[in-house]
Design goal:
- This protein has 565 residues and is an alpha+beta fold.
- It has 17 helices and ten strands.
- It has helices at 56-66, 86-105, 113-119, 128-142, 191-200, 234-239, 247-251, 262-281, 318-321, 330-347, 365-375, 377-382, 387-391, 413-450, 453-484, 486-501, 535-545, and strands at 20-29, 34-42, 49-55, 146-152, 161-168, 171-182, 214-217, 221-227, 294-297, 300-303.
- The strands form three sheets. It has a five-stranded antiparallel sheet. A three-stranded antiparallel sheet has the order 1-2-3.
- The radius of gyration is 40 Å and the shape is elongated.
- The relative contact order is 0.08.
- Residues 439-448, 457-468 have a biased composition (Basic residues).
Amino acid sequence: MAFMEKPSAGKLLLDDTVPLTAVIETSQSLQSHTEYIIRVQRGVSTENSWTVIRRYSDFDMLNNSLLISGLNLPLPPKKLIGNMDREFIAERQKGLQAYLNFLTQHHILSSCELVKKFLDTNNYSANYTEIALQQVSMFFRSDPKWEVVEPLKDIGWRLRKRYFLVKNKEQPKERQVLSWVDLGPDKFLSDKDLQSTVKLLPSLAHPYICPVTFAFTSESSALVIRTFNEKGTLRDHICKVKPKEQFLKKYCNPKKIQGLELQQIRTYGRQILEALKFLHDKGFPYGHLHASNVLIEDNACKLLDIENSLLGLPSYYRPYVTQFRKVNTTESIDVYSFGHLLYEMTYGRPPDAVPVDQYPSAPYTSVVSVLQSILSTEACKSGMPTVPQLLQTPLFSDVLLFNSEKPQFKITSKLKDALKSSKECLEKRLQEEQRAIHQHRRLTRAQSHHGSEEEKKRRKILARKKSRQSAYENEEDFSVKYNNNSGGLYMITLFCYSFRRGPVTPLPPPPPPPPPPSGSVPGPPSLHPPSVNGEGRGALLSSIQTFSKGRLKKAETNDRSNPHI
């Protein structure tokens, strides 16, 4: 079975979860319209930045496409008359900047293909639906028992993943869902090990993991088929939406949301933790837990997309995870993601921001204590509980599970070693990204503090203190030099006084002091620096003897000694 090569329209291993920031640097007015120059940056590195030029009509077109989300998007209104005035353009630029900030900071909209293409056309110019159809068609030619029923347009959040409702011609009434996806930046298994591991997925059996019907990988992409569930995912159940609707429409601003009852929270939570523990014990990395990756079937939760970590796909919560250096393993990612999921099951919506230290009023205090152990500031900084520790909490420890299916998943020791090595590489890349973000955050804080008014005042006061201290030290140095050279100053003054009365013969130097009497206690050492071979005094006498009167300027004397009458 051979897949067609993927067109080189974009970077194959680009991490789509790395957030983009967009700043409108300036605007330029032409005869008929105004263009806005936007500086876009991926991640924290300024080297990974570029500019795009957009008109207001481009913003308006994007906004119309995003209205399906049901959100109240803050796009500045249109203006037909006076839209070329300088003041209006400046005000509109501020409004468009606020609009971009809203899009890039919204967890779902920021990863939307429409927004990505608006800000980064070069990397997102490919038509992934067409690419997926081509490769799925190639697969059906090699295995003709499968047939496409209908494409499931944009039901997921990944840009490079497409879904199709398919059926097996031998079982025409049973619907299956086929997913096609590009390999991601965390793909560290060799092609051979990846194919061997993916082929084992249909043999995995667990009561709380959704079974895989068929799985196959090529050099650049993967294809997985599993049973389609008409009732949808856990998030569909919470938001009261239909599974086949578009992701933006379903989850951006759901009209009817409802948290689960306590018994459902306990049961579903226990089932999910049991599935995570099974995968961790097998050394199988997951890291992709969220409410849209949990199916509800016969009052039981089943994990979806267990192949994602093998294919190198970044986590749904990666933009959050990169902010916390304690969440640096696939196991800790699963625990952190479970905290988000538990919050959503309790309140019917995801948390607005993490860490979470203030919780809305909830009837279940036992749930809040578990949430605090995972999502609080202290937990994010110091560390979170493990999956076995969560299973021992009062919320889940006494939940009875009734299921006779025996879990099984046989992995060879060679593949276990390959999975372990791949997991270590995945975690290393995460830790490097966390370190870079941490350093960038520290630098940003330092620059912000350095430029604050309070810091400027403090630096001015410090500079004044240093200036005063320096002046005081200079005065002390001058005083010491004056005392040390008082003899020389006396001779110069005497000479100048005598010069006014006429030339005089220089006075002989004073005689040296008499030696101290024998046996007496020596006095303190002289403060005057010793002259070397009389060089200092000789230089002074030479300058006096070679003095020329012609070099002096004539001075006028104003005699005011006479008394005033």
